[in-house]
Amino acid sequence: MIRATTTSPAAAPSGRQLLLLVLVYLGAHLLSRTLISGALELDEAEQALWTQQLAPGYGAQPPLYTWLQWGVFQLAGVSVFSLALLKNVLIALTYLFVYLAALRAMPAPLALLASASMLLIPHIGWESHRDLTHSVLVTTMASATVLVAMRLVERPRPALYLLLGLVAGLGMLSKYSYALFFAALALAMLASPRTRTLALSPWILASALVAIVVVAPHAWWLLDHWQMASDRTLAKMQARPGAVAGALAGLGSLVEAVAGTLVVLVVAAAAVFGRDAWRAKTPGARGPFCSMWLRYLAALAVLLAAMVVLGGVTNVKGRWLQPLLCMAPLVWFGCRTDLDGHPRVRAWRRVLAGFAIVFFTLLTLRPAWDGWRGKPGDLNQPAAALAHALQAEGYDGRGTILAADRVMAGVLRTRFTGARVEVSAPGAPPPGVADGEALLLVANGGPADEAWLRDRAAALGLVEGAAAAGEFELPFAYSRPGQPKARYRFLLVRAR
Predict the structure, then answer these.
(1) How does strand 486-493 pair with strand 400-403?
(2) Hey, is 22 helix, strand or coil?
(3) Low-confidence residues of the chain, pLDDT below 70?
(4) DSSP string across 331-396
(5) Minimal CA–CA distance to 80: which of 41, 54, 122, 28?
(6) CA Rg value for the chain
(7) Does this model's pTM top 0.90?
(8) How far apart are CA 262 and CA 325, in angstroms?
(9) What is the pLDDT of residue 230?
(10) What's the CA gap between 69 and 53, in Å, rounded?
């Protein structure tokens, strides 16, 4: 089996250093997100809504993230803080798992850099903090799988096979793209006699059984909700099977997505290390796991190309590649262990620190910047002011709330935790509302939203005068002088 790269005791503080840096950096992100806005982005709003109940499935996404978010809500309450807390804990675990995996392939100082360099993957360093949920979790599970797989290669044990099955099952419950990651990893291990015996071990059946048991409740639900779970994803992929032009468009989109995922890392490495970034000066530069991860990348390329061509996928989004390519820095440093002690390593650390500061600053200032330039986004919605205005109109925070869109619904869910909040589309059957229960309908103030209110009122059988109607104009959380205010319309049937 492959032996781990040894590290000297002098390098041991690197682990504590990583932990401290991660805690400080992500703690700052947690504090920033909590303080800059009480409103929500789309993915945050979905979690606020879905966690009103535990279910084996939620629309187009597997349920694990929502289950975890539900647990955090039970402990810390339904709030922006709780939403940001779970996400930042998962990001911290991703960095930690990659670091622990890297320790098995390279000296500790390089392992620290391999983990920290994931910051240069835009969907990890930027988008994960901005507005991602399931992609964050599946990246955490992919990094955990990397760690378990490397430990298994080092020293095969039944417990590790069982752990692999557990992690794989949780990965599938995180996001369906995990299957592509795991398939590429399995092919990489089967491609070498050195690791093939591990993949063909009788204990792999026990591993598979554990994974099946973990996934089974959701898989059963998926059989009855396949169309609901797949339609949205296929629409995003713009799948058109059998079209040559579509295959070419898909391959072009795939190349673009890969380039967008790795361009910052590659350009920064070339700028700092020059030719040394890719060209080894010593024959022993390749670490013990280098070949395994190069085979993984090759298998991944084949599977992605097959998915595009055979599945007719014409639109590949960069965030879908996040869990598949998150270990790119690990592969780089694992195949270039001679970079340990390189004179440009200190410059690389400065690059990472610079990007961390820039990302944090831009994310913190983003709502204010959007408001100043007159294009307020979701985080600029006056969530607290809207809740206070509705309370002033007599809403007591109970009963049922119907919202015109998911972001609005999620915001109201964090403000009125004692109410049932739903998104109610025009033409859809109205939700059941108990007699005497408070009913609140809220929408933005445009013509389409006024039409939505009329449609929903008619569907609920509300006659004129049965509900208090009104509208608000509230200043955005961040705005420049003279900017138009946010407009909201509502109908309120008070509890009797």
Answers:
(1) unpaired
(2) helix
(3) 1-15, 227-246, 281, 283-284, 496
(4) HHHHH-GGGTT-TTHHHHHHHHHHHHHHHHHHHHHHHHHHHHTT---GGGS-HHHHHHHHHHTT--
(5) 41
(6) 25
(7) yes
(8) 8
(9) 59
(10) 11
